[in-house]
Structures are given as structure tokens and as C-alpha cells.
């Protein structure tokens, strides 16, 4: 596994790979790797000749400077974890390398970003789209891999790929969970033992909401059931819990018909750490 730190070095290599007809998979990350990331890398390795993993804590997507400052950074153990996964290049640029000058780029994803993460983290998806576009240009991937834990991010990147005609396949991969159901996340490292102990209740609440939604087809009832359940845990502060159309991400109306694909998304604070999760279901 080669480690590259400059955009020029990555671009030169991926240009060479393209000339040689080698297929390229790209896995963008912010590091503090866990099994969820490694599954993306293994999937990319199974489907491509070369796999680029980027680790870059992207300042432009953080709406909260404290969150950026405290974001876990463990470059040595990240590089160690990637060995043997099929990653051929690890790209770890500095902020100056990615943003030699301040970016003025403005994306507008319309309704897709006016809800949930977009509504609660102003500017977040602008920063994601900016850095992902840069990574697509430098990595020249045939396929790019994203996790469904960030469901709305996948929808936004899908729109980005379509609108800017990026010639690649977007592959969205299932959420990997701890054995107690907690979605793996780099931010889990920041949970206190007490917060970690109640964190699995988030997924339980989502499952409860999914069961209610399937049973009643009333999004309000489903949301309320999950909120009532979480209300018993004072350590958990829900920022939003939303039943939405899985593609359009808009709130689902009451009496939704069978055949509708729904997503139930949640963001919650546990002792100063913000976690997100979701479940997807097809109404029958
Ligand atoms: N548990 C998981 N299962 C599958 N994919 C995941 C999981 N966690 C993260 N990913 C995906 O890995 C990629 C990089 O995510 P990122 O580096 O932000 O990790 P993270 O664990 O989501 O961290 P955090 O949520 O704390 O920012 C994203 O496409 C993300 O959706
Ligand atoms: C896609 C991404 C690496 C862009 O910085 C980030 O949003 C993430 O880790 O999900
Ligand atoms: N996994 C999403 C990146 C972020 O929280 O900024």
C-alpha cells in the first residue's frame, strides 16, 4: 500500500492507471477507521483493480468548530488497519493541499438538503459536495463507495454525480453495526462509558418506529413511538427523528401506500457527541 499526500501525485497515478486500463475504486473517509469503513474498502477491492482510500477531515463540511477540533484523528493506526484490506493507495492530503485557496463554490441541492442533516448542519452538504467533487477529479474512480449510515449524503452525492456527469458508479453499502446494534461511527470513540451504554437504544428506537410504520402506515405515530421510547433515557437528546420518502427524503404523509420505500432518520446528542442513524423499509 502506497501513501500519497499530494493531489499531483494521486492525479499522476490515477492517470497512469486509466491509460493502462485498470479499474479504480474510491472510498472517501475522514479516518478513525472502523469495520464499517473496512467493509467499504473490501467491497471496492473485490470490484476494482486498484483501490484509493482517502482520509481527510474536511473542514468545509463542519458547521461546528468544536466538532471539527474534536474529530478523532489517528493516522498511524488507520494506515495499519488498511493493510491487508485491498487498499492500494492511501491518500492523506493536508488542508492546504485540498484548499490552496479558500473555496467559493456554492452547491444547491434544493429539497434534498432542506431536511434533516442539511437543515440541522447549515453548509454541511456544500462542503461534502465540494470535497467529493475534488476527490472524484483526483481519483478518477470507475466506482465510488459510500455507506448507508449517511443516507442523505448518498442521495446528495447521487444528485451531484448526475448533475455534473461524473462518469462513475455510485455504490452504496449497508450500515455495519456493533453486536448490540449501535451503528459503527468514528464519533463513537468520543462517547463516555455511560453514553456508550445507552447508545444502542437509538437503533432500537428506529426499529420500533419501523415496526409501527409498517403496522399503522402513520408516520406521526411511528415517530411518536420512537420519541416516547427514547424519552425514558435522559442522557439522549434527540435533534430530529423523521420518517421520509427514501429517495426524495421529504416527510411521508399519513396513510402512505404499500410499495412506498421509507427511511427513518435520527440525529441525537449523547453527552456532547452527535450521532446519526437510520433504517430503511419497504411498506407492504
Ligand atoms: N457503520 C458504517 N457502515 C457502513 N458505512 C459506514 C459506516 N460508518 C461510516 N460509513 C461510511 O464510511 C464513509 C466515511 O465516513 P466517515 O469517515 O465520516 O465515518 P463515520 O464513521 O461516518 O464517522 P462520523 O459519522 O463520526 O463522521 C462514509 O461513506 C460513511 O457513510
Ligand atoms: C464523504 C466524506 C468523506 C466527505 O468528506 C464524509 O462526508 C464522510 O466521511 O462521510
Ligand atoms: N459521516 C459524515 C461526515 C460528517 O459527519 O461530517
CATH architecture identity of the largest domain: 3-Layer(aba) Sandwich
Strand order of the largest sheet: 1-4-3-2-5-6
Strand and helix order: EHEHEHHEHHHEHEHHHEEE
Quaternary status:
single chain
- Which cofactor or ligand species appear? adenosine-5'-triphosphate, pantoate, beta-alanine
CATH class of the largest domain: Alpha Beta
Fraction of residues in β-strands: 15-25%
Q: Kindly report the name of the CATH homologous superfamily of the largest domain.
A: HUPs
Query: Percentage of helical residues?
Result: 25-40%
Catalytic activity: (R)-pantoate + beta-alanine + ATP = (R)-pantothenate + AMP + diphosphate + H(+)
Function: Catalyzes the condensation of pantoate with beta-alanine in an ATP-dependent reaction via a pantoyl-adenylate intermediate.
Pfam families: Pantoate_ligase
Subunit structure: Homodimer.
SSE topology:
Blueprint: E1 2-4, H1 7-20, E2 24-29, H2 35-47, E3 50-55, H3 65-70, H4 75-82, E4 89-91, H5 95-98, H6 116-120, H7 124-139, E5 143-147, H8 151-163, E6 169-173, H9 193-198, H10 201-216, H11 219-230, E7 236-245, E8 261-270, E9 273-282
Parallel strand pairs: 1-4, 2-3, 2-5, 3-4, 5-6
Antiparallel strand pairs: 7-8, 8-9
Helix pairs in contact: 7-8, 10-11
Adenosine-5'-triphosphate is lined by residues 29-30, 36-37, 40, 146-147, 149-150, 173, 175-176, 183-187.
Amino acid at each position: 500500500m502506497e501513501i500519497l499526500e499530494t493531489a499531483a501525485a494521486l492525479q499522476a497515478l490515477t492517470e497512469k492507471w486509466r491509460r493502462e486500463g485498470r479499474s479504480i475504486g474510491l472510498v472517501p473517509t475522514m479516518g478513525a477507521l472502523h469495520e464499517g469503513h473496512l467493509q467499504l474498502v473490501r467491497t471496492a477491492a473485490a470490484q476494482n483493480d486498484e483501490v484509493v482510500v482517502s482520509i481527510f477531515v474536511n473542514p468545509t463540511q463542519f458547521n461546528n468548530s468544536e466538532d471539527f477540533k474534536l474529530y478523532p484523528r489517528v493516522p498511524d493506526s488507520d494506515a495499519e488497519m488498511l493493510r491487508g484490506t485491498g487498499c492500494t493507495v492511501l491518500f492523506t492530503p493536508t488542508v492546504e493541499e485540498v484548499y490552496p485557496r479558500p473555496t467559493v463554490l456554492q452547491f444547491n441541492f434544493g429539497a434534498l438538503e432542506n431536511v434533516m442533516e442539511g437543515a440541522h448542519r447549515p453548509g454541511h452538504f456544500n462542503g461534502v459536495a465540494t470535497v467529493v467533487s475534488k476527490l472524484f477529479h483526483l481519483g478518477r474512480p470507475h466506482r465510488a463507495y459510500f455507506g448507508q449510515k449517511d443516507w442523505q449524503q448518498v442521495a446528495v452525492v447521487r444528485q451531484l454525480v448526475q448533475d455534473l456527469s461524473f462518469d462513475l458508479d455510485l455504490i452504496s453499502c449497508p450500515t455495519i453495526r456493533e453486536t448490540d446494534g449501535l451503528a459503527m461511527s468514528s464519533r463513537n470513540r468520543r462517547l463516555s462509558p455511560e453514553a456508550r451504554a445507552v447508545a444502542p437504544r437509538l437503533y432500537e428506537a428506529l426499529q420500533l418506529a419501523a415496526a409501527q410504520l409498517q403496522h399503522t402506515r402513520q408516520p406521526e405515530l411511528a415517530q411518536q413511538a420512537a420519541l416516547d421510547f427514547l424519552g425514558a433515557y435522559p442522557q439522549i437528546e434527540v435533534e430530529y427523528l423523521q420518517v421520509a420518502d427514501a429517495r426524495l427524503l421529504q416527510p411521508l404523509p399519513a396513510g402512505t401506500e404499500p410499495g412506498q420505500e421509507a427511511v427513518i432518520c435520527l440525529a441525537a446528542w449523547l453527552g456532547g457527541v452527535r450521532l446519526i442513524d437510520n433504517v430503511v423499509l419497504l411498506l407492504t
